[in-house]
Structure formats: C-alpha cells, structure tokens
Specification:
Layout lengths: L14 H19 L11 E6 L5 H12 L3 E6 L11 H8 L5 E5 L3 H9 L5 E3 L7 H15 L6 E5 L4 H13 L2 E5 L8 H4 L7 E3 L3 H5 L4 E4 L11 H7 L7 H6 L5 E4 L11 H4 L6 H21 L5
Parallel strand pairs: 1-2, 1-3, 3-4, 5-6, 5-8, 6-7, 8-9
This protein binds phosphoric acid mono(formamide)ester (CP) and norvaline.
C-alpha cells in the first residue's frame, strides 16, 4: 500500500498542484451550476471529525462529498470515544479502515499529524490552532476569479496572527505574493509557528493604515479564535485599533477586495459598511469552499483527473 497523500498545511502542495486544483475547481463548479451530475466518488466515504464548532467547513465537505456521489459521516468529540480519551493513534487506525478520506478540525497541529501518521487514507486539515489551508485554498481561488493572477499582488492582513494569517503567509511563498501584516503589540507573527522561514514574502507594520496602503486584498478574522476564549476580554481591549473600516478600504487600491473567512463580528474586527460594502466578496469566498474542496477530495481520493 503506497503512503497516502495528506493536506495538513498549505505547503503540502506545490504551485503546479494548486493550479491543477483550480482548473478542476472551475470545471466542477461549472458542471454543478449547470446541474450536471458528476459522481467520481461513488461508494467512497468521508469521515469528518470535529473537536471545534463549524458551519461552513462541515456543510461544504458534507454537501461536497454527496455531490461527488459519495457519503460523509460526522463525528464530534462530544458524542464519540475521542472525547473520552481514546488515543488519537488508535482512532486513526480504526477510522481509516472504514473510510476513504478523513477531515479533522482540532486544536494543536500535532494532534492532526499524529492522526495522519497512523492513517491508511488521506487526511485533510479542517482547521487547527496553527493552520486553515482549506480556507486559503478557497480565498485564492476567489481572488483569481475576480482579479486574475495573485502573483506579485499585496494582501493586507489586519488583526490576530492566527491560523488563517499563518496560512496566508505560507500561501504567499507558494504563489509569490506579498503579505502586509499588522497586529497589535504582543500578537505578532511567530515565523516558526507559521511554518514560514522565508521572510521575503511578508512585512510587518505597526500601523494598520500603513499595511493596507495600496493593497489589492484586505482581509481579517475574529480577534478571538476558537480555543482562546479565556483571552476574550483582554483581546477586545488590545485589538480596538485593528478594525477594518471604510478609511482603511479607502487607503487600499480602488480595486481592492475585502475577504473574511467568517463567522464575522461586525463592529469588532470589521465595520458593517466594509463587510456589507462594495469591496466585499465574503459570500463568494464562502461558496467557493464547496467547489475548491470538491476538487481537493477528488485529487486526494482518485488522483489527477483531466478537465
Ligand atoms: N470559515 C470557516 O471555516 O467557517 P466554519 O468555522 O463555519 O467552518
Ligand atoms: N481563526 C478562527 C477561524 C474560524 C473559521 C478560529 O480558529 O476560530
């Protein structure tokens, strides 16, 4: 049995593989929009394990798998033995003998890696404390759909240097764009945690207005990610000046897009007039989770297909 290919962080695929996934995404999305059946994963099963809440990730993987002709099974820590201390290595052995692919949303990246090491089938990162690769897969596809190539462009990241930020930083090294990051003091990017050792593709700015100046894409995320709720009050105070508002969007390129992985808190990390305004593509971004992940499932389960 050849070892499975996993998708645990953005750097697991190279540029050619991403370009292939985007080509397949366009093809799969187009067929889906024309109500044409495409069932390459008939009789295949995806198991989804959630240790944190989700709307988009669960829905896009579950609907996506069904639309590809397969089945999806939802497991949560609350109602499986995973929540009662069964070793992750044992769970991986068992779950991967009963399925064709596994998606996991959990806490530390290390948990996901331990599962993958013991899995007989591909494992996908559905979000960890460190990374959210499926999100940035959809975000870059969305950018390209609206504006063409992202190479050489500037992405402004405003707010917390969290899992989504880390993944943008990894993606910049694959696609050759620049990330201008602005975080409050004490929340700066940690290169090792981000898994980014090439600092040519990002620059840090103390003032968020400097980070957004001329940017092609402005993006942010919640001030308190899942798993960090105990820090909520402190973060509310520390992040007050890092709200993406209309002034920031005016400082960006007139063509700039606004993205947010969602769920969003209007009045905290983003002003309502921005997320509900003309630069925002958040609904397209959310929808593209479905189409890009269908291409990802196809690639990991049955390999490269021709369009
Ligand atoms: N963006 C995202 O992953 O959303 P969910 O937490 O709803 O899955
Ligand atoms: N950074 C957020 C993303 C949610 C999709 C979190 O981890 O909670």
């Amino acid at each position: 049995m050849s070892p499975s290919r996993h998708y645990l962080q953005f750097l697991d695929f190279d540029l050619q593989e991403y370009l292939h996934l985007f080509e397949r995404t366009r093809w799969i999305k187009d067929r889906f929009k024309r109500y044409e059946r495409y069932w390459p994963l008939q009789d295949r099963t995806l198991v989804m394990i959630f240790e944190k809440n989700s709307t988009r990730t669960r829905l896009s993987f579950e609907a996506g798998m069904q639309q590809l002709g397969g089945a999806a099974i939802f497991l949560s820590t609350r109602d499986s033995q995973l929540g009662r201390g069964e070793p992750v290595e044992d769970a991986a052995q068992v779950i991967s003998r009963m399925s064709d692919i596994v998606m996991i949303r959990t806490f530390e990246q290390e948990i996901l890696e331990r599962f993958a090491r013991n899995s007989r089938v591909p494992v996908i990162n559905g979000l960890t404390n460190e990374y959210h690769p499926c999100q940035i897969l959809a975000d870059i596809f969305t950018y390209i759909e609206h504006r063409g190539s992202i190479e050489g462009k500037t992405v402004a990241w405003i707010g917390d240097s969290n899992n989504v930020c880390n993944t943008w930083l990894q993606a910049a090294t694959v696609f050759g764009f620049n990330v201008h990051v602005s975080t409050p003091p004490g929340y700066e990017v940690e290169a090792e945690r981000a898994g980014v050792y090439d600092d040519r593709f990002y620059e840090s700015f103390a003032d968020p207005m400097d980070a957004v100046r001329g940017a092609d894409l402005v993006t942010t995320d919640v001030w308190t990610s899942m798993g960090f709720e105990a820090e909520n009050d402190e973060r509310l105070r520390d992040f007050q000046d890092w709200q993406v508002d209309a002034d920031m969007m005016r400082a960006a390129s007139p063509e700039a897009l606004f993205m947010h992985c969602l769920p969003a808190h209007r009045g905290e990390e983003v002003a309502a007039e921005v997320i509900d305004g003309p630069h925002s593509v958040v609904w397209e971004e959310a929808e593209n989770r479905l189409h890009t992940q269908k291409a990802l499932l196809e690639f990991l389960v049955i390999g490269k297909q021709n369009s």
